[in-house]
Specification:
Elements (H helix, E strand, L loop, with lengths): L19 H23 L10 H6 L6 H22 L12 H11 L2 H13 L5 E7 L5 E7 L10 E7 L6 H4 L3 H8 L5 H12 L1
Antiparallel strand pairs: 1-2, 1-3
Helix pairs in contact: 1-3, 4-5
Bound molecules: manganese (III) ion.
């Protein structure tokens, strides 16, 4: 069985950029529902309870056809949100990118500022519900990618390094339709240490 992980900080830790009420509903209700639905889908196929969600999403062809799309949606939702909570931290706990990550971003995008601009443009360009990701491709290149719904980068053999949830449930209570304002605020609470760990792990 899959379980809803606790947030790695308090519900109000990301204030004032992401409010306590949004975090509570987003984690307990939205992420919670993805986990519940995933467990229900896998009931007839309990062998999948033994696998990690990352392994399942990396090998979608192993899934029975009748649950495949459901696992993409709900397993993706579980993996994406588990990832998302960890790449954020309170403003006090967020620190600048490590030298190694900074060098990689600089050589791919030109500078951290250009990277942030291009990432923001990607996130603004997601039509409807979805995510923007910084990924590491199989040939170990950093790249930006939009994903609809809960499709996870691992299913395309890419490793997520950083990502932002731009479903309206992630920001509507505080920012209503102002996605750009949410994204601008979000940069203040990126946990660059965790992002750097993701990068180092993906580089192998
Ligand atoms: Mn969400």
């Amino acid at each position: 069985m899959f379980t809803l992980p606790d947030l790695p900080y308090d519900y109000d830790a990301l204030e004032p950029f992401i409010d306590k009420e949004t975090m509570t509903i987003h984690h307990d209700k939205h992420h919670g529902a993805y986990v519940d639905n995933l467990n229900k889908l896998l009931e007839p196929y309990p062998q999948f309870y033994e696998k990690s969600i990352e392994t399942i999403l990396s090998n979608l062809d192993d899934l029975p056809a009748d649950i495949k799309q459901g696992v993409i949606n709900n397993g993706g939702g579980h993996a994406n949100h588990s990832f998302f909570w960890n790449i954020m931290a309170s403003e006090a706990d967020s620190s600048p990118p490590s030298e190694e990550l900074k060098d990689a971003i600089n050589s791919t995008f030109g500078s951290i500022d250009i990277f942030k601009e291009e990432f923001t443009t990607k996130a603004m360009g997601v039509f409807g519900s979805g995510w923007a990701f910084l990924i590491l491709t199989p040939d170990k290149k950093l790249s930006l990618k939009k994903h609809s719904f809960q499709n996870n980068p691992l299913s395309d053999d890419n490793v997520p390094i950083l990502g932002i949830d731009v479903w309206e449930h992630a920001y509507y209570l505080k920012y209503q339709n102002r996605r750009a304002e949410y994204i601008r605020a979000w940069w203040n609470i990126v946990n660059w240490q965790e992002v750097a760990r993701n990068y180092v792990a993906a580089m192998g």
